[in-house]
């Protein structure tokens, strides 16, 4: 027999349950939990939805070495909603997927039955240039969206890595961001409305289409960063920004990280308004230089300041930054613009997504001491480290090598997390080999708010349709 709530909704033992013009007939015997019946119903009721079952495809869609039993690719929001409704009916778990750039984030899934990929939902639905807003489907890539917005001289001020592959839905589900978050914030600051598919297949809206939408609870912020555990994001409304008239990057080098961070504090305490401030250690600078085809100092620490606006305003801000830099012992570096500048920032973003990458958050004033601690720890444990920090936002990315499971690596991760927590921060292992994920909690210990998170998950997804195990505390 099906669960009582579902029986009441479907009219057990026999009732016609409709999806538009398509109908699913339930016989008296229960089909609940029957994966083969789920696939058969899906193919019968939604012939336009691609259902991929061949082993080569399933291997490509593996998550942490777990292959799904099917990959489902709907061609519309309605098809996606009907797919989720069928999964809910047959109690088949779903893992939402976009371009796959952030699938490394999260713990090992408890099970993986079906992946629902949203890349065919890739339209720019509306662009109200006069209002600086747009409405998009979740499967559009960030790069494709930016190209369409640029026609009207605008952009979405998000810059996570791999823009050509990362989809809007994946970016929102993981709350991915990049260096520009210093000036423009993250997705939670730029989203004004969402359209989502709930665990029972119902389509819901939150927020609105105008920037000054303040009515009701802000459910947008609940969905963003929830890793697809509460609902599937299928559309998003954003506030936009004009493309800057010009952009320049100033590079400075410091022999000591403490001097570099003192300059960061000085700039943040001034009237200067950089778009991004990135701190690179020698190993990261070397990797970025190779990737971007540039020459960067391999010793000491490099600070990169990005400025946008009119050329006159940029030159004034760069001159004032240089003046402050001399007072903090900086070695003057070159200025970047054009293709070199674009290649540099693309390489910086890519440097935050290595094979084993940790993301530590902390007070800005703690960054220097944290990096010194990390350097000493890695030398003691014979590990290699490359560090990139959003220096004005209190975020440090550490790439560690070798990534194979070892007592030294486990000890390093434990102490790096402990050090971050002692500084009132946290450490999340954003990317790691599956073998390592099975040895350590990538999210770290849960906080006092975890019972509330459990209640929210139970409320939004009582049947556990969205794959469990990947989010905080195994949610």
UniProtKB/TrEMBL annotation:
GO terms for molecular function: FAD binding; oxidoreductase activity. Transmembrane segments: none annotated. Residues 64-243 form the FAD-binding PCMH-type domain. It comes from the Bacteria. Keywords: FAD, Flavoprotein, Oxidoreductase. Its cofactor is FAD. The keyword Flavoprotein applies. SUPFAM superfamilies: FAD-binding/transporter-associated domain-like, FAD-linked oxidases, C-terminal domain. InterPro entries: FAD-bd_oxidored_4_C (IPR004113), FAD-bd_PCMH (IPR016166), FAD-bd_PCMH-like_sf (IPR036318), FAD-bd_PCMH_sub2 (IPR016169), FAD-linked_Oxase-like_C (IPR016164), Oxid_FAD_bind_N (IPR006094). This is FAD-binding PCMH-type domain-containing protein.
């Amino acid at each position: 027999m099906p669960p009582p709530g579902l029986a009441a909704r479907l009219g057990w033992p026999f009732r016609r349950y409709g999806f538009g013009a398509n109908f699913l007939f339930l016989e008296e015997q229960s089909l609940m939990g029957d994966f083969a019946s789920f696939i058969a119903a899906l193919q019968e009721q939604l012939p336009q939805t691609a259902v991929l079952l061949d082993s080569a495809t399933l291997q490509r869609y593996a998550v942490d070495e777990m292959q799904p039993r099917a990959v489902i690719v709907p061609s519309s929001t309605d098809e996606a909603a009907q797919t989720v409704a069928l999964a809910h009916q047959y109690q088949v778990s779903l893992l939402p997927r976009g371009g796959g750039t952030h699938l490394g984030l999260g713990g090992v899934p408890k099970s993986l039955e079906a992946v629902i990929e949203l890349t065919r939902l890739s339209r720019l639905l509306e662009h109200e240039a006069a209002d600086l807003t747009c409405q998009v489907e979740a499967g559009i890539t960030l790069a494709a969206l930016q190209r369409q917005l640029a026609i009207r001289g605008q952009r979405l001020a998000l810059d996570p890595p791999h823009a050509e592959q990362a989809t809007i839905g994946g970016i929102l589900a993981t709350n991915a961001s990049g260096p520009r978050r210093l000036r423009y914030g993250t997705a939670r600051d730029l989203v004004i409305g969402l359209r989502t598919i709930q665990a029972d297949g119902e389509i819901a809206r939150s927020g609105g289409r105008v920037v000054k939408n303040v009515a009701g609870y802000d459910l947008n912020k609940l969905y963003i960063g929830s890793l697809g555990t509460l609902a599937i994001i299928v559309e998003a409304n954003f506030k936009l920004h004009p493309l800057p008239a010009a952009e320049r990057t100033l590079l400075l080098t410091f022999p000591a990280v403490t001097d570099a961070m003192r300059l960061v504090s000085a700039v943040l305490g001034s009237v200067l308004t950089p778009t991004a401030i990135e701190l690179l250690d020698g190993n990261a600078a070397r990797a970025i230089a190779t990737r971007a085809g540039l020459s960067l100092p391999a010793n000491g620490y490099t600070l990169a300041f990005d400025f946008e606006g009119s050329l006159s305003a940029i030159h004034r801000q760069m001159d004032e930054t240089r003046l402050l830099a001399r007072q903090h012992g900086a070695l003057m570096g070159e200025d970047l613009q054009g293709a070199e500048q674009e290649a540099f920032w693309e390489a910086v973003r890519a440097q935050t997504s290595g094979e084993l990458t940790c993301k530590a958050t902390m007070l800005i004033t703690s960054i220097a001491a944290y990096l010194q601690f990390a350097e000493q720890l890695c030398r003691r444990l014979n590990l290699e480290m490359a560090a990139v920090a959003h220096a004005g936002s209190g975020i440090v990315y550490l790439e560690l090598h070798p990534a194979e499971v070892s007592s030294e690596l486990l000890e390093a991760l434990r102490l790096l997390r402990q050090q971050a927590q002692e500084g009132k921060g946290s450490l999340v292992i954003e990317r790691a080999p599956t073998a390592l994920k099975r040895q350590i909690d990538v999210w770290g210990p849960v906080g006092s708010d975890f019972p509330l998170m459990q209640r929210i998950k139970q409320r939004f997804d009582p049947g556990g349709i969205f794959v469990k195990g990947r989010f905080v505390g195994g949610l």
